[in-house]
UniProtKB/TrEMBL annotation:
Sequence similarity: Belongs to the peptidase C1 family.
Ranges for domain Peptidase C1A papain C-terminal: 87-332
Lineage: Eukaryota, Metazoa, Spiralia, Lophotrochozoa, Mollusca
Keyword Phosphoprotein included in the entry's annotation: no
One record GO biological process: proteolysis
Organism: Elysia crispata
Pfam families membership: Peptidase_C1, Propeptide_C1
UniProt name for this protein: Cathepsin B-like cysteine proteinase
InterPro entries to which the protein is assigned, alphabetical: Papain-like_cys_pep_sf, Pept_asp_AS, Pept_cys_AS, Pept_his_AS, Peptidase_C1A, Peptidase_C1A_C, Propeptide_C1A
Gene3D superfamilies to which the protein is assigned, alphabetical: Cysteine proteinases
Amino acid sequence: MYLLSALSLSVAAIFAVAVSVDFAPLSDAEIEYINSLEGNTWKAGRNFAASDLDRVKRLLGVDIEANAEYNKLHLSYPKMVYPDGDLPATFDARKNWPKCATIKDIRDQSNCGSCWAFGSVEAQSDRHCTIRNITVRLSPEDVLSCCEDCSGSPGKGCLGGFPASAYDYWRKTGVVSGGPYGSKDTCYPYEIPPCHTPTPNCTKLHATPQCTRKCIPGYPKSFEQDKHYGEFSYAVKGVELIMKELVNNGPVTAAFMVFSDFMSYKSGVYKHVSEQYLGGHAVKIIGYGTEDGQDYWLVANSWGTAWGMQGFFKIAKGSDECQIEDAIVAGIPQK
Ligand SMILES: *[C@@H]1O[C@H](CO)[C@@H](O)[C@H](O)[C@H]1NC(C)=O
Ligand SMILES: *[C@@H]1O[C@H](CO)[C@@H](O)[C@H](O)[C@H]1NC(C)=O
């Protein structure tokens, strides 16, 4: 009896130390603590200035609970048919489709909670290539600014939205091309300049840009001519089906819970150590693998290439880490 309770007490004590840090988000103390943890699968470092916390929280533009509800009501859950055969142990869509340049993209949402638009158009762009052999970099701004049903209310774009609604928009309205801020070779490039850290210009949330429904001057096509459409969109549930979907069709959109330590991710396979929840975030999964015995998903973030591993990260696979396996959305482009 005594032995048992002593044992469970020490297990509880170890558990408490291993899964919970109560340091100030983005503090040096939090970073040092993560890197000091025995057996931790990832490394932390400085991606954002500690003073940027308020701005950084606004990058998280998905309400996880509302998103789950939205998906239940708006997405189909088809029984997709995939070819027989074993799945590869490691998969990286960049290597599988080397000609599909957009898979390698890391974009920058800047100080706007537009992750839901980025995570969606990024995967849609890739699939125009992987499935239809068309190279196009779709415009997050078209979705962010012009989709009136995407955020519950028009103009709410930078305050957040639902990936599945961005897929509806792609199917019904189409999405024009759109590269990074300042680029000239697409119809509707991103209008919000990147934030440099620490950045006096980005202390406030950027207002959602007005929808113009016009390509930039000099672009050779009209807004309507430049639209690229989805044929259908759907949810993917279950680790093995997500893997099959990635291998057979290409990148997918995911949403997950962000804890404070994620902001300081630098390398390795992320599992949350902090319990300080900051908000929900949408991203694009491009592959999977195993590192030092830990299975992971390979993911593209939209916080520029200075964040994480040149903008990418790995997160534990198979344990629904931060609910990343719960809200997968995928789509098939029209011919
Ligand atoms: C894909 O598109 C390229 C460029 O338009 C073309 O050269 C190639 O033959 C196409 N591949 C297939 C499988 O259709
Ligand atoms: C901040 O904004 C001002 C005025 O718009 C501009 O001149 C300056 O270059 C910006 N600084 C940075 C770091 O973006």
